[in-house]
Amino acid sequence: MSYSANSNRYQLMEYRRCGNSGLKLPAISLGLWHNFGEPDPLENCRDMLRTAFDNGITHFDIANNYGPPPGAAETTFGKIYSADFKSHRDELIISTKAGWKMWDGPYGDFGSRKYLISSLDQSLKRTGLEYVDIFYHHRPDPETRLEETMMALDQVVRQGKALYAGISGYKPAEAESAFSILKQLGTPCLIHQPKYSMLNRWVENGLLDVLEKENVGCISFSTLAQGLLTDKYIKGIPADSRAGRQLDNGAISKDIITPELVNIVQQLHDLAAQRNQTLAQMAIAWILKDKRITSVILGASKPAQITDSLKAIDNYQFSKEELDRIDSILSRAPRLQ
Questions:
Q1: Beta-carbon contacts of residue 318 (< 8 Å; ≥ 6 apart)
Q2: Is the pTM for the entire model greater than 0.90?
Q3: Number of domains in the chain
């Protein structure tokens, strides 16, 4: 059945300006990290993308190595894009990344100019796109000069293969250096994508301040801590969960889900209920309360998870008492990496 997008989709979403650029992103974006690989049913992937767009999510976030296997998420997206979204290309922000291992040999990992440009060329072929809107360097490379990596980002923007440059996983000092080089090259950094959640708050130790000072957007990933900040693990580990499946692609381990952590999650769940929210909704709202956050990347395995999480934008205001209570609960929580 051909796809006809919801005509009211833009009334359902809040859009936030990305730093001081001309670009706005939806407050919630859809990430294709774990559930768009070869084992995942194509129809479910299609339903998730349609559900997202029908609710005003205009940003789809991918990376070269998302799958499994690496590259599969881009291929899956390309099939659905060609059938359903090609006529909406100018309404979409599509991002991809390179920086983690993608292929064997010395040119398929980290941050060399050779790797980044080759990887983006491959990503464009897999997705069937003429360009991506945002191309990220996925992580710092300790063995490649930062100037070389940033020159590669500048080059792909100038070639029209990407409209904007971004970075991910860079610590505050590293990010400042990257921003300075890109400014000198004439391609300012649009956005930084860090891992940020109630259980992983490292960005509060300087990075958010740097992004605010430099007028760079911030889009968080793993905001639900790969499902830990939902009701999923309160009563055990479901077999079809990321921890249950034990995926070898960065998914959480069963060992993390201790009785102590479950108790923390239960307390957060109870507070969310007092706010008339699910825990997932409160966890997303807690990130969105900070105006320095441009968008939150949502990972989902079914359309219903998307529609449920979207309700977070209905209330991301917190009282001082609620914030103090959250900080008290989290003070006893393990810090995830």
A1: 285, 286, 289, 326
A2: yes
A3: 1
